[in-house]
Design goal:
71 residues, 2 helices, 4-stranded parallel beta sheet, globular, single chain, alpha/beta, Rossmann fold
């Protein structure tokens, strides 16, 4: 299965690594490119643009949500 993975912050690298180890073709994108380097060494594919994550069988997003409340 080809999986696009967006977001390699606190939880993303571990999740993407498990997908790679399970034999999936994982294409990763992150706002900063450095977290992608380790996943490339493990068999992942770094995307040059976010759009590339959406051409596979599934997409996983692991993005931080910031909630603001006005009092």
């Amino acid at each position: 299965m080809r999986v696009g993975f967006i977001g390699l912050g606190a939880m993303g690298p571990a999740m993407a690594t498990r997908l790679i180890d399970a034999g999936h073709e994982v294409h990763v994108w992150n706002r900063s490119p450095e977290p992608c380097e380790e996943l490339e060494q493990r068999g992942g594919h770094r995307l040059q643009s976010l759009e590339g994550a959406f051409i596979g069988d599934a997409v996983v997003t692991c993005l931080r949500m910031t909630m603001q409340c006005a009092l």
